[in-house]
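Before drawing any conclusions, I needed to go through one protein's amino acid sequence and its backbone structure tokens, quoted below without any editing.
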Amino acid sequence: MSTQTPEKVVIVGAGVAGSMTAAYLKAAFADRISVTLVDSPADGVPDEDESTLGDFRRFFDFLGLAEEDWMPACNATYKLAVRFQDWSGAGRHFYLPFEPVREADGFPLTEWWLRGGPTGRFDRDCFVAAWLCDAGRGPKPVGDAAAGPGFAPVPYGYHCAPGPLARLLTGYAVDRGARRLTGPVSEVRLDARGWIECLVTAEHGEVHGDLFVDCTGERGLLLHRALKVPYLDYQDTLPNDGVVTLEVPADMRARGIPPYTTVSAQGAGWIWTVPLFDRIGVGYAYAGEYRTPEEAERTLREYAGPEAAGVTARHGRLVSGRSREAWRHNCVAVGPPAGRVEPLGTTGVASFAHHALEQLVRHFPGADFSPRLRDGYNAAVARSLDGAREFLTLHYQGAARDDTQYWRDAKTRPLPGGIAEHLARWRVLPPRAEHTPGCPGLPGHAYTSLLIGTGAVTPRAPAALSLVDDTVARKEFTAVRDLARTLSELLPTPYEYIAQRALTTG
């Protein structure tokens, strides 16, 4: 190991997390560090299609990649929101958009809606994106429309295929000097202190480095198997432990590309739908206590419809939890070895890896591998994963359905952290961004919108609003409606925009 600031970074695992790490570090440090990417097979749950958070554009901006540089290779589409289907009752849906909530006289529009909104749809009353989702419109205009008086940017994320994304980012890193090695790691050799000295591979012999990054999936080859860092299980609060996925070919031109991820509540879990340019990705996260893998696959195929006939299903074990330390000694975890929660609409590998990489660059070690930098990274990663766990717990506590034993039991599971106290407070004062546990990338209104939409724990409007004139709020509700109608006419469908901008290889 060098006595200087770490100059040799070795990344193990070239999936989405590993390729993102290689690309991000080369973009951050260029030739001032060397990066070796060991493409060692990972294991764990099947790779579901990536459905990112609304801040993921920062990742590509940091790399200097425009949408036309990467979207075509990844069959990527746009995502304005998450559509929650059947969580508050059969046939009902609501959207959780990335769009920030407007304010009137210092109170969010969602709180004014609780006092008395224009309609029964809080999402359409408070957010332009909900209208665009219902109308099947994307976030961006074609041509010169963006300069027109009616256009206002709408925040968005992406859907993309994980394999092509990993290959593209690996190529990006290699083009900028990273070295890529293929083949499994047969041994992780430790020095006398218990730090990683080198990796041993059959094809390439010993691979030495100063800092090692574990991106090997749930197994955590470096952090868990070699360094024996224990794992904190979330399964007591998040019930799903099985997953089955299908990649369904579809004529997306005829079908249309929805500008949202759908998560549909089922009898023993939930099904996600991720629309790409050339196909649909669907998956069922379920609890094995209530469904067998065969039953889960049958449910998923029925949900996907005739287009899924003959498509091979991929089954896996879904592990929710986090490492007690994401950084130990000279080993840092990014992606599933650091932790993973149920992939409920907004929690793909890419989004958590992005936040971890921002923290890794911020806390990048010097020659002394300062414990303060390590502790800062560990605290940031733990906070994001624990926050995601708490937010996911609200999906089960907040769902207004008790039609199966799965949903009845979900309400009796223990609550993590201070969620019980938060819920008690939120029944009389809606949550704000500054006093929610949170996880990075969620909009500030996420907790309020989720509780209103799922229906079982509806917060009350602040008592102060009964003393405040609502004229400004009514004007804001009208402004949302008017802008939404204008944009619904102005903006093209996602398919039209992507095809016209040549953002697809198809």
